[in-house]
Amino acid sequence: MGWLLSEWKRLRPYFSLLDFGSAPSTRVAWAVRVCVLSFAAVVLYKRTTAVTSPLLDAKPLPFIPSEEIEDYRFRLPERTRHEIFMEIAEAENAERKRAIDQNTWKGHLWSREDDRGHYERVQLRALGTRYKISLTQMYLILDEGIRNHWPGPDGKPLPATTPALDMRWDKW
Q1: How many CB atoms lie within 10 A of CB 140?
Q2: Separation of alpha carbons 88 and 41, rounded Å
Q3: Which of 78, 89, 98, 87 is CA-nearest to residue 152?
Q4: Are the C-beta atoms of residues 134 and 128 closer than 8 Å to each other?
Q5: pTM, whole model, 2 decimals?
Q6: Which has fewest Cβ within 10 Å: 51, 77, 90, 169?
Q7: CB neighbours (10 Å) of residue 73?
């Protein structure tokens, strides 16, 4: 234990070089302070540019025309839009059935629908990757199918409504 005390006494003057609360008294202290502050400035600059450069250098997303050619919307022919809508509708019906069978969210309809919307978003991202289109285009196709009452896999259109919000303040 005595060796630790003697080492502390020997190293204590060097720790005073890192005391940024007082002005440096020697050239070595000034040099250490300049080196530490320079290093901190470089790290701060690199971190700031790493975080902000994707935001500042991002190119705007390409415009998605609504109607370029007859039968084309959102850069896709109607046949492809129907295919995509059918896949979305199949997944949505399957998710609704699963939620009812497993009584997710203890029967709270709004929470169940919100949860289903999360799974739908995950599925739309995967479908968008497969079809090489954006998530926006996927939602535009879903919206078009719902508005035009396109039939789903069961022959019925998807519901265009959502359950009313139930805040459940007393149940949390």
Answers
A1: 18
A2: 50
A3: 89
A4: yes
A5: 0.59
A6: 169
A7: 18
Contact in structure between 158 and 90 (CB atoms under 8 Å)? no
The one-digit pLDDT tens for each residue of the chain (172 residues) are 677 777 777 777 766 666 777 777 788 878 888 888 899 999 999 999 999 998 888 888 777 666 667 788 888 899 999 999 999 999 999 988 988 888 888 878 888 888 888 989 999 999 999 999 999 999 999 999 999 999 999 999 998 888 888 776 665 5
Q: Which amino acid is at 75?
A: R
Work out the angle at residue 7's Cα, subtended by the Cα atoms of residues 4 and 11, and round it to the nearest 5 degrees: 140
User: Who's near 153: CB < 8 A, 6+ residues apart?
Assistant: 86, 89, 90, 93
How far apart, in whole angstroms, are the C-alpha atoms of residue 39 and residue 100? 58
Alpha-carbon span 63 to 136, nearest angstrom: 11
Strand blocks (E) in 25-122 = 72-73, 76-77
Cα separation, 77 vs 84, whole angstroms: 11
Q: What is the DSSP letter of 133?
A: -
How many degrees, rounded to 5, is the angle at CA 75 between CA 144 and CA 66?
A: 55
**Rounded to whole angstroms, how far apart are CA atoms 137 and 159?**
20
